Amino acid sequence: MSWASVVAARLRGLFGHKRLERELDDEVRFHLEMQIEDNLKAGMNPAEARYAALRSFGGIEPMKERYRERRAFALVETMAQDVRYAVRTLRKSPGFTTTSVATLALAIGANTAMFSVLNAVLLRPLPYRSPEQLAMLWSEVPSQNLREGRSAYWNVEQWRSQSESFADMALFDGVSSTLTSADRAEKISVVRHSPNLFPLLGVQPLHGRIFSAEEAEQRQRVALISHRFWQGRFGGSFDAIGSSIELDGLPSRIIGILPAGFQFDNDADVWEPHTMFPDWEAIRRSRGGGFWSVIGRLQPNVTFEQAQAEMSAIARRLDEQAPASDPNRGISVVPLSLQVTGPRPRLALWMLMGAVFCVLLIAATNVASLQLGRSASCEREIAIRAALGASRARIVRQLLAESLTLAVIAGLLGLWVALAGIRAILAVKPGNLARLNEVSLDPQVLGWALATCLLTGILVGLAPAITMSRRNLTPSGQEGGRGIAGGVATRRIRRALVVAQFALAIILLVGAGLLVRSLWSVENVDPGFRPERVLSMHLSTTAFRATAQRADFYNRVLEQVESLPGVESLGITSELFIGGNPERELTAEGDARTISERLRFRSDEISGGFFKAVGTPLLRGRFFSKADKPDSPRVAIISDAMARRLWPGRDPVGKRFRLGPGDSDTPWFTVVGVVGDMRRQGLEKEPIPQMFEPLAQNPPRLAILLVRTSMSDPLKMVGAVQAAVRRVEKHAPVYGVTTLENRLGAFLSERRFQTSLLIGFSVVALLMAAIGIYGLIQYSVATRTHEIGIRMAVGAQAGDVFRMIIGEGLKLSLTGLVLGLVGALWLGQAGSSLLFGVTATDPLTFITVSLLLTAVATAACYFPARRAMKVEPIVALRQE
Amino acid sequence: MRSARTDKADVLQGTLILLVLRTLEALGPLHGYGIARRIEQISKDVLRLNQGTLYPALLRMEQEGWIASKWGASEKNRKARFYSITAAGRRRLARETEDWRRMSSTIERFLGFEPGA
């Protein structure tokens, strides 16, 4: 009976109860019928024959009862016996047990922790009703390389009325508003959305109500607030409903509170009607490109593909009516689950999960290899047990029970490791992974831990079980302990395990190497400014109603702070680091003609010293000066990317442009300077075109003060700078104080986290592989002492023996190396989007990793080889 | 056909295993009734087998891996469960046989021992 059929029999015992009962009935009936027939042949009459048969059988029901008991008992009893036996043998070799349990516990723990992240971020359904029906709808213009673009109100209305595959569509846009209270002002994120958004998501407010279509149409200033905002601002009091908050200087009435777990669009705090935009009427009429994000709910039984096909058809119809200036606008339907966690974090998570799973495989392999070595030495005992009548199945079962016991103990410890791991991950908060805060040890994660446990147990026990079931289990005196231990099958399997370990370790190391190279590339990217020694803090001027007052406040702050000792230069900007930007229309005067075009660009207001403070070079023209007064002609400084885009190959200084289409009445800006590109969306994103206008001509409500200091730790100046601001305005809020380096570093946190995790995993993998090969070679030397003795007795030099042993190890590690490199090349293609500034086939990484691995393998084989060299032929031969 | 004679010994559980294994080794695959008949025939009605006790014993032996069972057609083309001995069963049989011989010869010697002879 093979172990598979043992398992099958067990499962039948657990699940096939009815069938077993029927079989027992059949068997008893068959027995009685045969007996009755024989009795009839012997000359009894039918009644007698039947009676005699029943009597000779004995009580049927008591017998069935014993049969059933036996069946149930055997299941529990043999299991208990196996486990008892396993615990006993494990206790007999504490070294092996401790090593194995620790190795497996770490691997299972790391796996469980990683899975809990994967589960929370990717696998757990989104907290909306039937989230699998939700999709985002984006505009796309392939000719302008615009994908997942936002849409105009008119277009969305058309989609909504024409589409049959969507039950409903809602639109929303995240904006940043200034929340003013008695003593301070701050920026909060606000979502403006159509009234059907919450019904579409299937989310009910915790208290109060959502706003109606009529309220939105009448542009009533009503707002819903997040649970967090409710707790923070109102202490969870029900007085919140009906009270009012001031957003961008206007009061809004709170009508509802959203539930605690609700998440949508970057944790906004306030939700208000989509009609809140001051230029709503213009927005309502706009066509083509817009700034709305659109979410839709599919009709039941409609697939995303069907919806996509229908939306493409609608897009073509709309295209025919669209003006020629806006050609080929398509619509793309993206399932919401894919949207929430973008393809890159998704890929990164799967990569890390794969890596940690490799670590588990290597750990299990290592323990299996140890187990094989050990089972070889226990072989005599096993052979004796076999001779005493233990069936092969029983022995295999015991070996499996041993490894499963090992795995379960490791799994329990692993849960503890996982908890620590989860805590560490939450403390680091890598980058801005959506839904990371939902990470926990929930039933799915526990299920996963159990599954990894069982898998590990079976993997570990499989190799010894297979070699055992193949072998002739007779105790053979002439072979002796040594002879059996060197069993060909055992050795072959252990070698294969070592090769597999090396291959997996190589794949992880190459991955880690490529990520390290990417991290270096990102760190060496020129952000377009010099962040060292620069202090960054937010200022608010919402206390001032008039723009002139705001401009005056900023000027006086600059004067006060500039006079402080330790300040080298300083500047103010409306914003520094930015997220995505909608495309906007812009009209630029050319040499020959004026061109309007849509493009994504960023516009900010800055003080004259801003570029000097952040260290961005002036390429042409001049910086702003005191001469750029509120009433003087509007001027702008543009970034190099903007200059190349609007006036390719020509000097932009002196050229003019205006926001909006050519016939709009917005003011013309005259370009007075061109500055270097700044990477303000993160180091890995190409800088987008940027324009800047003087602070004095359009002072923002909130701004960032940047102070370049002469100190190595700019934070030492915080107190002095704050005091200087307070001298200007006693109650002026100063918040969000940090250094520019910190803010820039935040962009790297996700990549740093991924890289350091993968480095950790691959170092562990490498160590385990090294231990694996060391153990194998060590063992091989120990079993070959006799052979080595003979070799040396017939004239082999110590050097020959040394080379022979090292060669054995290197052959294995090099085989693993080649397999691993092939695997790494193959997987590298799949993961190439995680890389930056390095290709997936980077020769330097591959060569370094190969050398490292060969060095480690050589080192691991060195000590056993040294030992082999020192074998005394006489001693070795006498051992026999 | 048997009658309840008082001088018949009940088959001991340990002995039953030996008898079943020996029967299956000698005759090849057999159903439960066949095994019972064979044991009764060989023992010439000296041993009384409570036939019902055979089945739990067969189950236990199968669980230990000494015998295997398979459903098949009987000589009269009826569905029956056939038992056969496994390799582990043969080893077990060898050991039980040896044990039994050693035990019975010891007891024989013991009984044949004449005090004072």
Write the layout of secondary structure elements.
The complex is a heterodimer of chains A (880) and B (117).
Chain A (H helix, E strand, L loop, with lengths): L2 H13 L1 H25 L4 H12 L2 H33 L1 H30 L10 E8 L4 E4 L3 H10 L3 E15 L4 E9 L3 H5 L5 E2 L4 H5 L4 E4 L1 H8 L9 E4 L2 E8 L12 E4 L6 H6 L7 E6 L5 H18 L8 E6 H5 L2 H35 L1 H9 L4 H37 L14 H28 L9 H6 L2 H36 L10 E7 L6 H16 L4 E7 L9 E7 L4 E7 L1 E5 L3 H5 L3 E4 L13 E5 H7 L9 E4 L9 E7 L14 E5 L7 E8 L8 H11 L5 E6 H7 L2 H35 L1 H9 L4 H33 L12 H27 L3 H6 L2
Helix pairs in contact in A: 2-3, 4-15, 5-13, 5-15, 5-16, 6-11, 13-16, 13-18, 13-24, 15-16, 18-24, 18-26, 18-27, 19-22, 24-26, 24-27, 26-27
Chain B lengths: L8 E2 L2 H15 L2 E2 H11 L4 E2 L5 H11 L2 E7 L5 E7 L1 H26 L5
Parallel strand pairs in B: 1-3
Antiparallel strand pairs in B: 2-5, 4-5
Molecular structure report:
The complex is a heterodimer of chains A (880) and B (117). Chain A has 28 helices and 23 strands. In chain A, helix 4 (60-92) packs across helix 15 (392-428) and helix 6 (153-162) crosses helix 11 (304-321). In chain A, the strands form 3 sheets. In chain A, strands 14, 15, 16, 17, 18, 19, 20 and 21 form an 8-stranded mixed β-sheet that branches. In chain A, strands 3-4-9-6-8-7 form a 6-stranded mixed beta barrel. Chain A has 4 domains: 3-92, no CATH class; 131-340, no CATH class; 343-523 and 749-878, no CATH class; 544-730, no CATH class. Chain A is of the alpha+beta class and 880 residues long. Chain B has one domain: Winged helix-like DNA-binding domain superfamily/Winged helix DNA-binding domain (Arc Repressor Mutant, subunit A), CATH 1.10.10.10. Chain B has helices spanning 13-27, 32-42, 54-64, 87-112, and strands spanning 9-10, 30-31, 47-48, 67-73, 79-85. In chain B, the strands form 2 sheets. In chain B, strands 2-5-4 form a 3-stranded antiparallel β-sheet. In chain B, strands 1-3 form a two-stranded parallel sheet. In chain B, helix 1 crosses helix 4. The longest helix of chain B is centred in the C-terminal third of the chain and has 26 residues, at 87-112. Chain B starts with 8 loop residues before the first strand and ends in a 5-residue tail after the last helix. Chains A and B meet through helix 2, helix 3, helix 4 and helix 15 of A and helix 2, helix 3, strand 5 and helix 4 of B.
